[in-house]
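#lab-general

N.A. 3:47 PM
ok so I finally got the sequence cleaned up, no stray characters, all 174 residues accounted for. can someone with queue access submit it? mine expired

B.Y. 3:52 PM
send it over

N.A. 3:53 PM
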Amino acid sequence: GMIIERIKLGGFKSIAQLELRNICPYSVFAGANGAGKSNLFDAFAFIGEVIETGAAKAISRFGGFQSIHCYKLEGQEQTTFEFELDTMIDGETLHYRLKIHDMNAEIPRLEEELTSGGQRRISRMPGEVPAVFHEDGARYNPVINWKHDRSSLMFLPESPLSIFLLNIRVFRFD
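B.Y. 4:20 PM
back already:
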């Protein structure tokens, strides 16, 4: 089973900063037109696309920087997307943080962090090659020429987190 303890995201469409805690497995989001419900779920679909294809393709698929940046933010904050997830999947506590820097650039730069049960699994600063760690803590750098807009989660395709984020589907009922 899966328990979502916390989701934080910011810098996407009308969402400057949003934090949700203790989300029920079956949740209903209701509100007035224009309140941001669709943007919240578009952000989840966007994250899955970033992990599957890279940030540059995901941004393009979602209409380009002008369509997805948060107009409420200014300067460097306007070109940055941020997502954090604290969850428990099959008894394993996970913390994942993804930041996309320079969303308006040809090749955006990703920053990522993943811990599993308190142990570091992924560590990556913007513009750097990701460091991925085995479950025993041993570090390995899987590739040298890694595109700065590709997610490090591609190195852990069988992880419950990767499977979850790659399988987010958004259905709308009007």
